[in-house]
Amino acid sequence: MKQSVLGKSLRSRWLQRYFDSWLQQRIPRNRMFRLDLNNVFIFPSRFGWLFTALCLCLFLLGTNYQNNLILLLSFFLLSLFLVSLMVTYFNFAGLEIQQGKVGNSFAGDSACLPLWITAEKEQKKFGRLHLSLYGEPVQTSVDLDGLNNPVEVEIPTPARGRFRPPRITLCSYYPLGLFRCWTHLSFDCELIVYPTPLPCPLSVENRKSPGESEGQLAQEDGYDNFDSLTEYRLGQPLYHVAWKQVAKGQGMVSKKFSSNSQRAVWLSLGHGAKAELEKRLSQLCFMVLELSAIGQTFGLDLGSVIIEPDSGNAHQQACLTALAVFESDHAQA
Length: 333
What we know:
Strand order of the largest sheet: 2-11-10-6-7
Order of helices and strands: HEEHHEEEEEEEEEEEEEHEEHEEH
Oligomer: single chain
Helix content: 25-40%
């Protein structure tokens, strides 16, 4: 019994790999697609098969009893079935789908893939268009006669690293639901999935002073020393708000900090067990976000990858990308 189930599972996997390979040759990756005979599939839906069975039953009934009205009805329904085939295809074909800019995300979150859907030569399209991930249930549906571009498809990103989105399935049952017209599109884009930020104490290293060692960021001399109270400005971090003064009814005031030294600090992966690698990368991701939020100049040392001290959005993205694509074989057990 177990061998039979295992054999069916292996055959199913082989067929799925074969179909995926064939699909890759039939509809290769691209940034823009125009739906036509080369990338569109059409087949009767479940309702369509029931409709076909009804036509067959009516034909047999009319033939058996030699009833011309029943035969006429069966021929009429069959012709309606064939006309629906053409209408379903031509309403689906001619659509142009182009991918938009895909933003990076953190592991465990979902990335949004924006799709711009237009009709070729401004042809009028009708019915609902259903979108989903390949092999998954329908995620969202839009009306073709009232599109609001872009249409966003959420893509789960469970693990850090470079990630290619799966194929997106688009399908339509217009006008009568007798046929399902669909396609599986693979968009040529790559996401960078950052590690999940793991809150932890900000631990940095000052490499300019040999006598100093790694320690808590808030305890380092000359860093974030309290100076005075100023009026709170919209956009300042909430952890700078003097909540004691707010509780006394003195309004929103913000703590002003000064630093006796503007020297850069370093974030280091260090040496640790291989099992702790993902946890350490997640902690470094949190530190990068926190240091960038306060405008601190910092560098990142991952052993095989070193990013010199800097600040700003570009530096933050470079550090997060280095953490995302860092390979586990660099870790030392």
